[in-house]
Specification:
2 domains; Alpha-Beta Plaits; 4 strands; 4-stranded antiparallel sheet; Arc Repressor Mutant, subunit A; 36% helix; alpha+beta
Length: 199
């Protein structure tokens, strides 16, 4: 069973002064609207036009995704309303997605692996099927020997084998190769694009 982490995306934009039912509805809508990106949602993304204030807000959110709008407004010298509007735009344009990061090992997922997948002509159908597997957390189409590369997490070798077999069973898959990860040497989940980006 895959680990599910409820997203806290966009909840800081909900007004704490609203009534409890209105606030609850706002938070629910925020979670649904800014959920993690799935297959196909990366298509059409273009470089965002960010000014220095936008970059400062991104850096603040990278440091602590639960910062309040009031705190960020004080840090950048803007009004609460102006910061709230900017953050909403950053979320809507997918410049940032705010959520809870978790280490799979703490949830019983001791195995991680990279699976190369060769496909006949049904790349889109196969990629949709693989992306629907909860344990697959990263999936890309590639050039070279394999058409798709998937990273997945599993509880143990038996679970990993079950996942690989489920991928092999997808119509259109002609070949797979599994590379198990032995040790994590470097893992950056927060690259500082905000300071390196150019407009």
């Amino acid at each position: 069973m895959a680990c599910t982490v409820k997203m806290i995306v966009g909840e800081m934009l909900c007004d704490e002064n609203d009534g409890s039912s209105t606030l609850s509805a706002c938070r629910k809508a925020a979670r649904e609207e800014h959920a993690p990106m799935r297959s196909g949602e990366f298509h059409g993304l273009v470089p965002a036009q960010l000014d220095e204030l936008d970059r400062k807000l991104v850096r603040l959110l990278q440091e602590d995704g639960r910062r309040s709008v009031t705190e960020m407004a004080g840090a950048v010298g803007l009004s609460h309303a102006a910061v709230r509007q900017r953050i909403q735009r950053l979320l809507n344009e997918r410049v940032v997605t705010i959520g809870a990061m978790t280490h799979p090992q703490t949830h019983g997922y001791a195995q991680s692996a990279l699976v190369g997948v060769r496909v006949d002509h049904r790349v889109h159908e196969v990629s949709d099927a693989i992306s629907a597997i909860d344990e697959v957390y990263y999936l890309v189409t590639t050039t070279g020997h394999y058409d798709l590369m998937a990273e997945l997490m599993a509880a143990d070798n038996e679970h990993l084998l079950d996942l690989v077999m489920s991928i092999r069973a997808i119509p259109g898959v002609t070949e797979t190769e599994t590379i198990s990860f032995v040790d994590t040497v470097k893992w950056i989940y927060r690259p500082d694009f905000a300071t390196r980006g150019k407009n």
